[in-house]
Write a structure and sequence with these properties.
globular; 406 residues; mainly beta; single chain; 4-stranded antiparallel β-sheet; Methylamine Dehydrogenase, Chain H
């Protein structure tokens, strides 16, 4: 399950299908059995045999909601991970492992608890720029490189399963679908490609952008993917056919970030034009333009529940907006330089920002209060992540180190 939502997988006419069920109104005191019976009435897919399982899932979510959160993070370990600067850091779902990509042409796999290096994934002929686990499973890792190839690796053994060749320029972004059947890569050659993970083959090329594809993102059910480009547009594609469904036109600057919300009804886009836009993902229509930042927006994200979204800007501030009202509910001010990354914790009540002022900060998502400044890096921090429980953070910096905070 994902936070505050459940994905049902079922087989119909021999085809595997998925449906997502919303649990946005779940509270610690909600009657779990009554809630599941209510869902069951509306959702004939839930049979009595899986009802008990879903009740237990809901109760686990309720336990998470009750956990108190005044956790102060302490530095656990500094990893001199690479000989050259890092490009990216990423956790597996549980947070037991994380990976670092680097200009030194490798990706390293780490054990979070001990800070021990488990594998060095070697073979790329240039910068390893984009990296990802196939969460929620976490048994595979993808690395995208400036050498124009993408590689698929085993998390356990560090062995390379496949090398995906076909792009004509650097690969700068990649993503697995949630079902872990497909991998998408985006390139400076203006295209994105979808690859079959099992067979190691290209399925389709998504052509249509007139400039570099710099961001891409699958929706939860995996039937749609969005690509954002330096051509100032975001395209919504049908994954099964590779058809263009919508072109989201409106930004006057390059796209820096684009994401679906959890139930795949909305898309958020951030741009160098200093604005963030909200779109209807189904109709491909523009809902709102959010202004207020005085410089480029470098990152945007939804919380897991899809109730709020956040923007990070080169003006040194981040903002939190409510999806329903489109109003700014909090301004996160305090960094002395641009913020390149903003993420919610899984619960949605905390926000983590990474800045070129060499610090990361932890904020209250509702009020904008800064709880904690994570200090110690000696150069800009460009990457940060929470584990799924929200009790561990990793930060990646241009100082060639990665820090684990508990």
């Amino acid at each position: 399950y994902l936070f505050k939502g459940i994905i049902l997988e079922y087989v119909q006419d021999g085809e595997t299908k998925t449906r997502s069920i919303d649990l946005l109104d779940l509270r610690p005191d909600t009657d779990a059995t009554a809630l599941v019976e209510e869902i069951q009435n509306a959702e004939p897919l839930i049979t009595d045999s899986c009802k008990e399982h879903i009740i237990r899932l809901v109760q686990r979510l309720q336990e998470k909601l009750e956990e108190k959160e005044d956790h102060k993070f302490k530095l656990f370990k500094v990893l001199r991970a690479h000989t050259l600067p890092l490009t990216n850091v990423a956790f597996n779902k549980s947070g037991s492992r994380f990976i670092t990509g680097s200009y030194d042409r490798t990706c390293k796999v780490w054990d979070t608890l001990s800070g021990e290096e488990l594998h060095t994934l070697e073979g790329h002929g240039n910068v390893v720029y984009a990296i990802a686990f196939n969460n929620p499973y976490g048994d595979k890792i993808a690395t995208g490189s400036f050498d124009k190839t993408c590689r698929l690796w085993s998390t356990e053994t560090g062995k390379c399963y496949h090398t995906f060749r076909g792009h004509r320029a650097e690969i700068v972004c990649l993503s697995f679908n949630l079902q872990s059947t497909l991998l998408a890569t985006g390139s400076m050659d203006t295209t994105a490609k979808l690859w079959d993970i099992e067979k190691g083959e290209e399925i389709i090329t998504l052509s249509g952008h007139s400039a570099e594809v710099v961001v891409l993102s699958f929706n939860t059910t995996g039937d749609r993917i969005i690509t954002g480009s330096f051509d100032r547009t975001v395209v919504v594609w049908d994954v099964a056919t590779g058809r263009k469904l919508h072109i989201l036109i409106g930004h006057r600057g390059e796209i820096s970030s684009a994401h679906f919300n959890w139930d795949s009804s909305l898309i958020i886009t951030g741009s160098m034009d200093k604005t963030c836009m909200l779109w209807n993902a189904v109709a491909g229509t523009h809902i709102a333009t959010l202004t207020g930042h005085s410089d480029e927006i470098l990152d945007v994200c939804f919380d897991y529940a899809g109730q709020n979204f956040a923007t990070a800007s080169a003006d040194g501030s981040a903002r939190v907006y409510n999806v329903e009202t489109k109003k700014c509910i909090a301004k996160l001010e305090g960094h002395r330089s641009e913020i390149s990354k903003v993420v919610f914790n899984p619960k949605g009540n905390r926000i983590l920002t990474a800045s070129s002022d060499k610090t990361a900060r932890l904020w209250d998502a509702a009020t904008g209060y800064c709880f904690q400044i994570l200090e110690g890096h000696t150069d800009e921090i460009f990457s940060c992540a929470f584990n799924y429980k929200g009790d561990t953070i990793i930060t990646g910096s241009k100082d060639n180190t990665c820090r684990i905070w508990h």
